[in-house]
Amino acid sequence: MMTLPTRTIGPFQVSAIGLGCMNLSHAYGEKPDPADAEALLNRALDLGITLLDTAALYGFGENERLVGRAIGHRRGEYTLASKCVLDVIDGKRGLDGSPAAIARTLDAALERLGTDHIDLYYLHRLDRNVPVEESVGALVRAKEAGKIGAIGLSEMSAATIRRAHAVHPIAAVQTEYSPVVRNAEIAVLDTCRELGIGFIAFSPVARGLLAGGVADDHYVEGDIRAAMPRFTGKALAHNLRAVAAYDALAAEIGCTSAQLSLAWVLSRGGHVVPIPGTRSIVHLEENVGAGDVTITPEIAARIDAIFAPGAIRGPRYAAAMQAQIDTETFADEELA
């Protein structure tokens, strides 16, 4: 097994680049062959990736089953992260942050994962019908019972983070973050730094936009990008012009577009860990190489110029999904 540089997330030392497991079971259309997905997870561990991120929602439980089946026998080699609150309710995606629902989701997750302990367990979204203190309280009890090791939050604002942290120290906050999605810079990144909370950047290559993965809006059935305004129609056509300039910068530097994005995320602070997802072992190996790319002040400034206000059009989420996001928005941000 290889080793990678590490960063501190709560009580854990994890590889500076983790792995988001979602797209092995969820959200991007056709799923990979199970054997290929299992091979990728094992290759990730062989490469020295030690933070793996899943959730009850992903594949309606199938992603947790995949992780347990593929690498449960190597449980001591990685920090396992999963999530609750977003789950399958009456056969559909649902939101329930009540302590009873959290306890049910956790017990089902442990069974699917084939383990008695999840290292890092997140509230996947804020349920505005339940005080966050009550939701965190349920995770405190789970920690006291030995079912989880640390508590995380996903897509929550600085104010919510502070409320949660007052109940029990929060180990990690997870939010979308890349050169094109900067909401975390409004308040969350600084709040995490101040409180000693790790920051986990999901979609650090902007759902493939910064990895050569989006050329048009002809998505396969089941690809969530088809419902995301910035990934379709005139907005996408506009956005791809900025991406072309970004791709040219990566080529000039001598790295791939994905590596440049991951290196940029890593440069934002020592408490930041990106968790790119992929179905390709070639791309997985490429992502690990991002640690060798240096982001100089000049390169950072050029990236900022490429993605200056107006370079990316269209809301980040459709209205129904945006309604579940607590993370701050910019004053001029397009919202569905």
From TrEMBL:
GO cellular component assignments: cytoplasm
UniProt keyword Oxidoreductase present: yes
Cited PROSITE patterns: PROKAR_LIPOPROTEIN
Record lineage: Bacteria, Pseudomonadati, Pseudomonadota, Alphaproteobacteria, Sphingomonadales
GO molecular function, one term: oxidoreductase activity
Pfam family, one: Aldo_ket_red
Organism: Sphingomonas yantingensis
Protein name, per record: NADP-dependent oxidoreductase domain-containing protein
The keyword Oxidoreductase belongs to this UniProt entry's keyword annotation: yes
SUPFAM superfamilies in alphabetical order: NAD(P)-linked oxidoreductase
Alphabetized InterPro entries for the sequence: Aldo-Keto_reductase (IPR050791), NAD(P)_OxRdtase_dom_sf (IPR036812), NADP_OxRdtase_dom (IPR023210)
UniProt keyword list: Oxidoreductase
Transmembrane residue ranges: none
Ranges of residues in domain NADP-dependent oxidoreductase: 16-306
